[in-house]
Amino acid sequence: MTAALRAAVAAAVADDLPVFARYLPDGRRVVHLDAPHSAPRGGTHVRGLGDLADVELPTPKVKKGRIRVPCTATHRSL
Question: Which pTM was predicted?
């Protein structure tokens, strides 16, 4: 599963999927990574995934029946 997830992330970065945020009525920020995914209070502050370099995905964790995938990335030098 982890290898497939890493491959999907690498493809999304290569495709430079757009990233945008919206705010819910209660003030929570939700970050959308194109159509595949959205996450409450996401910390991504890039226009598109192509702005990222060195994306690392440690092993996903299951907690309370939900899969959590931590990640780190650096910005690509222009």
Answer: 0.64
